Here is the input.
Amino acid sequence: MKAKDRILKKARKKGFKLILWDLDDSLIQTRSVFSGKIDEYLEVVCSKSEIDIEEIRPIFMEQNNKVFEVKSVNPERWDWVAERMVENFGRNEFVEYVPILKSIYKTTPEMVEGAMEVLETIYDSPLAMGMVTHATPEWTELKTEKIRHMFGHIETVDVNRHKSKEDWEKAAKILGAEAKDCIVIGDSLRNDVEPAGELGMAGILLPSVWSVYASGTMPNRAVEVEHVSKVFEGLEKLLEMESRS
Here is the structure.
């Protein structure tokens, strides 16, 4: 029996029944899609308006972060960002080329390297898997096309609010698991691991690619790993922690 299989079997024996995954930038490279489209948008706007791209980039990102707090992940938030950029620079090109940003939601991100192998290993184990993700249902459908069969339930959070502990709790209940028997894996301390910890779930925190997601307090029943391919090492650390408690 392989080491990963032994760890998963041990986790089930210890009482864990369900692994709940975040999707974006935990399993798929969503942030690179955003970055690419933002670069394309800014380059087009700057070429048409003769504005220095390095001058507007930090202002654009600052406005994006601010609007996220209000509009969450609703695709219409790009209209707000564009309007704020017009207020700053007086150029209508910011609004004119917003469709470049909205094309994000018609793009399928690549899998994070090693993520598919991790999913396939867990899928063949005694542990069940679910997902809590935050996007429009249409984009979620597109992003999970190749992997959705591995999950007993995919909970898609309303784009007009932020992901919360209630969403993780709902997914666990649908899949018939108590909070104490769940492990949440995600790249957001703020929206994944911390709220899961408030419910009594265990957590494995992946590296965050966006500073907005890095804020929060690490729960006692959680560990941090450097890459999704290290999830089994993180699970082993969790089991060691459970044994000492």
